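Final paragraph of the annual report: two paired records, presented back to back.
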Amino acid sequence: MIGIIDYGMGNLRSVEKALEKVGFDAFVSGDIEELSKAEAVVIPGVGAFYDAMENLKKKGLDCWIKGEIKRGKPFLGICIGMQILFSYGYEVEKTEGLGFFEGNIVKIPAGKKIPHMGWNQLKVKEESQLLKGIHEGEYVYFVHSYYADTKDTDAVKATMEYGIDMPAVVERNNIYGLQFHPEKSGDVGMKILKNFGEVIG
């Protein structure tokens, strides 16, 4: 069973339906007791880093997430859900993230249309759980104005180019992150969600 965190940010039902489509039971909840029963958890989200962290804190979900990750539960962050796994975000104001990956969430440099919205190619750096069966140059769907500026290069499993190379997939132990929206990324996105679900067997 995969829990999807409802903290007032994002298209939760589409993620739930996508997970069910690839064969996993999923549910949406903002209740810590219910989410604690899940074998794996997804943190989706659209919007601002600041708002995401504020909403998590109001529900006590920030501390709960940190505790569950440290206990080894698989977590997948999607879009803003990936960004809050980093140290700090600079959207609205400097805001502390969950800090599982080193780096800052900063605005995409001038010179390209912002937000970065639409299909872009993955540049696969190395094999990972999420990218099993995913090939160099596969297209996935992005919607974002900020990106992860990180020197935590071992965690970056794939990038995409939009003026500069930006992390698209991060992974370390039981922590996974996608800058793009797998639920909007066709067969490639479905395969990535299936790869995540297979972590729980």
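The closing record of the year follows.
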Amino acid sequence: MSDTHDTATDDASGQINADVLQNITVTLSIEVGRAMIKIRDLMRLSQGSVVELDRIAGEPLDLLVNNTVVAQGEIVLVNERYGIRLTRVAPASERMKNL
């Protein structure tokens, strides 16, 4: 009989191993805003069309991890690439609960 050890959990505690958890890949995305439109309007979209979003210019953008909002921020330019400067971050306990 072989004794196997699950590397995702600590020895006797049954808690998730932090090293394993921290190496899991997640999807990070930035949301500028949303819009609900009818399919007929979607079919009419073409190059140059404008879709009005539900946010006012200057409102913070949402930072999502696996489709869950974890922070908000503003767009910045870093070495000719876009980035986001975080202005509000959900507490760590709330972020982990929602992932």
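The longest strand covers residues 68-78. This concludes the annual technical report; the extension proposal builds directly on these records.
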